[in-house]
Write a structure and sequence with these properties.
316 residues, alpha+beta, Copper Amine Oxidase, Chain A, domain 1, 8-stranded antiparallel beta sheet, 5-stranded antiparallel beta sheet, globular
Length: 316
């Protein structure tokens, strides 16, 4: 059993590594500009340690005249003698014609253009502060912001557990009956959304590093519907998945339009994988529908960022 659980986690990590990385936030970040909280259609996102904010509402609040050219993907913002220009996907921006490097490139997601907050603060010479505990960004004038509710703050990493817990601590936090367990893995029977699933906790050096839901009784006939059901649940909780496509091909993509009736066969034969990913400050969440030799698997894996190096070492 121990070897089987280990192999399952390693297989999931291999699929996740091959898929495109995307990000979102577990608790929406609130943005304050000069002491006033601004309304945003989409909350800021965190990517590789950098905060990106929707450019139009932030720049407009700062009294910039803004423009975006979808053909050239150029973002422009002008205020008095300050002219800023950024390009979607480029790690360079222009301040009054002078090229400056960015730590992360601007991006467009579901019709919303996000730009790095640090660039705005430096170009406009504004103080910026981020409170990770309260999930609040302040740009410009700094004020005392009310603490977020305890319900918002009490977010766990996986179910009722937090990364780094021992197997003993996880057993106390989990309300289900233990099916199998040792210092390397714990297994329970439960649900993810409305679907029956095996629930697994994975430990390295007796530290919780990952958690996983493996949906039971997933067949080729229902794999796509179940995947979409789970994606809707996680999108509602963590925000929109930012994958350009749900599909990761293992071989050459077929030409022409693919019928929805063909996807179960492509997945069960191992030709394609359906994949979505979300990211919080502490966790990367993978939703994977895959298959091989006619059999299918639907998995949701939570992976610790802090202990990812342990997982990487285990794979070697």
């Amino acid at each position: 059993m121990k070897k089987k659980l280990l192999l399952l986690f390693m297989a999931v990590l291999m699929v996740a590594t091959a898929a495109p990385a995307i990000v979102s936030a577990a608790i929406p970040i609130h943005v304050y500009v000069n002491g006033e909280r601004i309304s945003l259609i989409k909350p800021p996102i965190i990517q590789n340690g950098s905060i990106l904010v929707p450019f139009a509402p932030v720049f407009k609040t700062l009294d910039f005249i803004v423009d975006y050219d979808p053909e050239t993907k150029v973002i422009s913002a002008i205020k008095d003698k300050l002219k800023l220009r950024l390009i979607i996907g480029s790690k360079y921006a222009y301040v009054n014609g002078q090229r400056v490097p960015l730590t992360i490139a601007p991006r467009a997601t579901n019709g919303i253009t996000f730009v790095p907050l640090r660039f705005i603060s430096e170009a406009a010479k504004l103080n910026v502060q981020y409170d990770p505990n309260n999930r609040v960004v302040q740009l410009g004038k700094q004020v005392k912001v009310p603490a977020r509710s305890k319900d918002e703050a009490a977010i766990k990493d996986f179910r009722n557990a937090t990364w780094g817990m021992t197997a003993g601590q996880v057993k106390k936090s989990e309300g289900l009956k233990l099916v199998h367990g040792d210092s390397s893995a714990l297994m329970y029977k439960g649900k993810v959304a409305a679907l029956n699933a095996d629930i697994l906790y994975y430990f390295i050096n007796n530290k919780l590093t990952a958690g996983l839901y493996q949906v039971n009784n997933t067949s080729a006939a229902n794999i796509v519907a179940n995947y979409k059901e789970l994606k809707a649940v996680f999108t509602d909780k963590f925000g929109a998945s930012e994958n350009a496509s749900d599909v990761v091909w293992h071989d050459e993509e077929p030409e022409g339009e693919i019928s929805t009736l063909d996807w179960p066969a492509y997945i069960s034969q191992g030709r394609a994988v359906f994949y979505s990913q979300w990211e919080t400050d502490t966790t990367v969440i993978h939703l994977i529908a895959s298959g091989e030799s006619g059999k299918t698997s639907l998995i949701v894996m939570y992976e610790s960022k802090e202990f990812k190096w342990l997982m990487d070492t285990q794979q070697k």
